[in-house]
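During the first year of the project, the team set up a workflow for recording each protein of interest as an amino acid sequence followed immediately by a discrete structure-token representation. This format lets reviewers and collaborators read both layers of information side by side without switching files. As required by the reporting guidelines, we include two representative entries from the current panel. The first entry is reproduced here exactly as it appears in our internal archive.
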Amino acid sequence: MQTIEKEQGQQQADVDPSASVIELLRVLAGELSHRTDTDAARTTMQAINKAIRPGVSINRRTPQVPRHLKDDFEQVFAHIPEELSGVSSALAAARPFLPWKADDSSGEGYYEGGADIGRSYAEGNMCCPLIGPKNSLIHS
């Protein structure tokens, strides 16, 4: 068992995290390109395409999943629909490099510090800041 884990660790060390994360973003933009009838999809796709311009590299963040959400995280990966197989594959390749965090009201995410977003939401949701002005993999 340790040999397999050691080999997997070596394989991850050989993979360029920037390439995996950028490929994930390309795939997400591709999926959104089929849904440009909504402003949110169009705006997000444009932001992704702008962020992954040639030569871009990712900011190194510590890959993690909040301890209390690890089981739920595994369930999400096990239930991605077949029609999103491209997203699933790209997400699996980038997964070892993604810094997931609880999507709470700590002031580091989408909510103002101390915002009342509800306990079940604060304790049961995650986000991975891929593109943004701070604490994200790609600065925008």
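The second entry, processed by the same pipeline in the following quarter, appears below.
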Amino acid sequence: MTNNILTKYGFDKAGAIFASAFTSTDYTLTNYKYIDFIVASGEGEQASITAQIYGKSTKDDIGQALPFRVIGNNGMPEEYIEAEGVGLNIGGNGSMAVYRITADDLSKGGFDRVALKLTAATESTVIGSVTTVRYEPRYTE
């Protein structure tokens, strides 16, 4: 039985996270249908970075970039992004982006865990955070 109401939230990192390349914690999706990575940036000097989602088969695996979806303000997938990633503007008046990948997307490549990677905006002092939400668990944890 699937409980569609339960979700699991994770807080990955906060602070001046854009000054160097960032890789999130590995998240397994063996018990979840999909995961959203929420990247938020505060006000500051505007810069552009690239976001990619990597599938991994083990914790020590460097992984492989995979296609994913951008989630719109209505909570629905808005755009399909190829494995090369998507540009994300940070700073300015602040921004937020939501990226989603499903357990099915991971399993097609033989992966069971996922991580978000962000490129650096050298010397950026813009404050930001990465939060995760995993949805639709198969079993209660």
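For the second entry, the following points were noted during internal review. The chain has a mean pLDDT of 90. The first helix runs from residue 103 to 108. Both points are flagged for discussion at the upcoming steering committee meeting.
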